[in-house]
């Protein structure tokens, strides 16, 4: 993992220069700036934020470019190299070379048992997990925002029903429900006589995480809308005859972007963790699709003899989640400099 | 107070009924037929029908649900298994034992895990948080902030195996995590659960340090603290007799949420350390399509979450007299 740090160092120093230049320029004349511009200017000055943004970006690039990386590296995540080539695994299925079989050919070593390449497994696994987390974040944020605004703005019976649904969803023992629901959704989507396609698990996991995930953001937005609804500018808009659609999209929504973005940045690492948790419990993506979370399941079975294997998914996930959490904090600071952490 | 409690408990019961209904109906979407599993490999249609009848599965879904619900309060009679006294959550399809007693058997494991971890997390978190507030701006302060970011980002299925590998496999300092009943031998119980507690506290403690610190600082800036100081009370008395009470209110709220997470999250913790608690029971129930067990575990888990929320609200009123429960 040398490349993210080198990129970040460069971006960091560049940013400091531009900020200094910008600061020098701005003292000359007063310029009007939109809240977005202000936020961006504050963010550029935040060194931790920039470094974490670079790391997060690097992870998404790895996920996006997984086929290219695997092609350049010359291996794929499916071939059992250890089984095909003698001299890589011992009779118990563990790598012969020390440290999990790390060598010039296999940068991160070999998977005990099947003898697949850990590096490509991890790269493709990150691709699977991050894409799921991203899809779920977008979907659950969208549903949560829609439900929250509807509930808060319309009020009355609608609010009561949505409110009770949210209460119930938040009282579910969620981990348990995740593992229960994935097979249920899978069955609901496929006729019993049909063959289960490989992408189906992927879709089921996305659906389940979304269904159990939207309630948090909906509850938060509902509260925000309730307080905004009573403010003068909304009342003014209504009195002057603005349609509900206009009030929601032109008056309410611009004031809600900050909590929405903050909630989404908080949610994404949680979904990465939840997806990985599913994989760890054996309810996530099935073989042979590479999966970040399932690597922990394999790791938990082999760590007594080969602890190295567990380190790669573990450390990479730790770096990703820390970077993403710090990035979330920086975005929050940039949007609202008054918040204390 | 009483009317508040009654209303909250009624609301909780409605939510629990909803959750059990949803679980009940959802599970019927599963393809595997539990009666078929009982029947064995060579299964004649008549036997299958008989088993279905004995399990009460030939009745409409709503009637089945009603039987289940009334069984909790009045007990049930099964042709297959015999009597099941109240509170009856049915019989497990897989292990053929009463669900309620299976949950009761496993409960001490999950409870020991959660309570032990809570004690470590709360005592360390609050202690270090108060220390950090006592000595603002000193290293402890900064260490707490940065470790809480790392702690919150750690996954238990990563740290758990690493700690076991280092402490048990390599150094041989502690035995492999397992459960020994407290009543049998408190010391063995303690030693065998130490690793899970420590791992859980690695993830959670720093967060409490940070919260306690910021709450203490907020309280120390309040008027009543200034009044007490002006009347000649020593800084230490103000700190330890007044300020900490105010600081504990938000901590209790967060702890209520975390406790529910710990209880509900016991699935992953127990799987990581191969402890046979309720979480492990749930995972097994999912694998075996064991509807009664799953329903039981879900409802008990949800009940824990819902009632913990009520307890937190009531505790609130006890600590903070300004809160009126209405």
Automatic annotation (TrEMBL), chain B:
Q: Which GO terms describe its biological process?
A: transmembrane transport
User: How is this protein positioned relative to the membrane?
Assistant: Multi-pass membrane protein
Kindly give the InterPro entries that the UniProt entry links to this protein: BPD_transp_1_N, MetI-like, MetI-like_sf
Q: Where in the cell is it found?
A: Cell membrane
List residues of the ABC transmembrane type-1 domain.
107-316
Question: Which Gene3D superfamilies is this protein grouped with?
Answer: MetI-like
Under the cellular component aspect of Gene Ontology, which terms does the record hold? plasma membrane
- Transmembrane annotation, as ranges: 9-28, 113-134, 146-167, 187-208, 242-268, 293-319
What PROSITE patterns is this protein classified in?
ABC_TM1
Q: Which domain of life is it from?
A: Bacteria
What Pfam families does this protein's entry cite?
A: BPD_transp_1, BPD_transp_1_N
What keywords appear on the UniProt entry? Answer: Cell membrane, Membrane, Transmembrane, Transmembrane helix, Transport
Q: Does the keyword Nucleotidyltransferase apply?
A: no
Q: Which family does it belong to?
A: Belongs to the binding-protein-dependent transport system permease family.
Q: What is this protein called?
A: ABC transporter permease
Q: Which organism is it from?
A: Planotetraspora mira
Q: What is the lineage of its organism?
A: Bacteria, Bacillati, Actinomycetota, Actinomycetes, Streptosporangiales
């Amino acid at each position: 993992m040398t490349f993210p740090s080198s990129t970040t160092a460069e971006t960091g120093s560049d940013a400091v220069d531009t900020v200094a230049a910008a600061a020098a320029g701005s003292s000359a004349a007063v310029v009007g700036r939109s809240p977005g511009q202000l936020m961006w200017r504050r963010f550029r000055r935040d060194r931790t934020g920039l470094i974490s943004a670079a790391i997060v970006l690097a992870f998404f690039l790895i996920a996006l470019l997984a086929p290219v990386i695997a092609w350049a590296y010359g291996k794929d995540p499916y071939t059992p190299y250890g089984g095909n080539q003698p001299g890589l695994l011992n009779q118990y299925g563990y790598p012969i070379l020390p440290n999990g079989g790390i060598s010039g050919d296999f940068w991160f070593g070999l998977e005990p048992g099947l003898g697949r390449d850990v590096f490509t497994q991890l790269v493709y696994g990150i691709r699977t997990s991050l894409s799921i987390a991203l899809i779920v974040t977008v979907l659950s944020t969208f549903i949560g925002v829609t439900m929250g605004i509807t509930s808060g703005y319309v009020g009355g019976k609608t609010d009561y029903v949505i409110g009770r649904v949210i209460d119930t969803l938040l009282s579910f023992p969620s981990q348990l429900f995740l593992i229960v629901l994935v097979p249920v959704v899978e069955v609901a989507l496929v006729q019993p006589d049909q063959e289960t396609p490989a992408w189906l698990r992927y879709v089921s996991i996305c659906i389940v995480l979304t269904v159990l995930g939207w309630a948090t953001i909906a509850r938060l937005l509902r509260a925000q809308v309730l307080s905004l609804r009573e403010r003068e500018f909304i009342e003014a808009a209504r009195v002057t005859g603005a349609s509900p659609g206009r009030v929601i999209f032109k008056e309410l929504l611009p004031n809600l972007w900050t909590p929405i973005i903050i909630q989404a940045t908080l949610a994404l690492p949680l979904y990465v963790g939840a997806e990985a948790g599913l994989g760890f419990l054996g309810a996530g993506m099935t073989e042979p699709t590479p999966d970040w979370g399932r690597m922990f399941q394999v790791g938990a079975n082999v760590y007594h003899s080969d602890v190295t294997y567990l380190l790669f998914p573990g450390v990479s996930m730790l770096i990703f989640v820390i970077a993403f959490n710090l990035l979330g904090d920086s975005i929050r600071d940039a949007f609202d400099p008054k918040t204390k952490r | 107070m009483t009317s508040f409690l009654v209303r909250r408990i009624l609301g909780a019961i409605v939510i629990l009924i909803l959750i059990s209904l949803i679980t009940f109906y959802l599970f019927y979407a599963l393809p595997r037929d539990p009666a078929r599993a009982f029947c064995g490999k060579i299964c004649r249609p008549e036997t299958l029908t008989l088993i279905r009848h004995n399990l009460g599965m030939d009745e409409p879904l709503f009637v089945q649900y009603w039987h289940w619900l009334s069984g909790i309060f009045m007990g049930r009679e099964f042709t297959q298994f015999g009597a099941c006294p109240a509170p009856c959550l049915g019989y497990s399809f897989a292990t053929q034992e009463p669900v309620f007693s299976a949950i009761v058997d496993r409960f001490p494991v999950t409870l020991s895990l959660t309570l032990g971890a809570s004690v470590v997390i709360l005592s360390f978190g609050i202690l270090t948080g108060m220390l950090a507030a006592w000595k603002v701006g000193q290293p402890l302060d900064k260490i707490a902030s940065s470790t809480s970011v790392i702690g919150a980002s750690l996954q238990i299925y990563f740290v758990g195996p690493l700690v076991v590998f280092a402490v048990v496999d390599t150094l041989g300092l502690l035995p492999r995590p397992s459960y020994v009943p407290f009543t049998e031998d408190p010391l063995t119980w303690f030693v065998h659960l130490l690793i899970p507690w420590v791992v859980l506290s690695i993830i959670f403690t720093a967060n409490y340090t940070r919260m306690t610190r910021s709450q203490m600082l907020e309280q120390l800036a309040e008027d009543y603290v200034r009044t007490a100081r002006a009347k000649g009370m020593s800084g230490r008395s103000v700190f330890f007799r007044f300020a900490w009470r105010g600081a504990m209110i938000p901590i209790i709220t967060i702890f209520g949420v975390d406790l529910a997470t710990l209880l509900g999250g016991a699935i992953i913790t127990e799987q990581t350390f191969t402890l046979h608690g309720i979480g492990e029971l749930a995972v097994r129930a999912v694998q075996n399509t064991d509807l009664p067990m799953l329903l039981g575990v879900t409802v008990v888990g949800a009940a824990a979450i819902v009632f913990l929320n009520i307890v937190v609200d009531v505790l609130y009123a006890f600590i903070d007299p300004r809160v009126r429960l209405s």
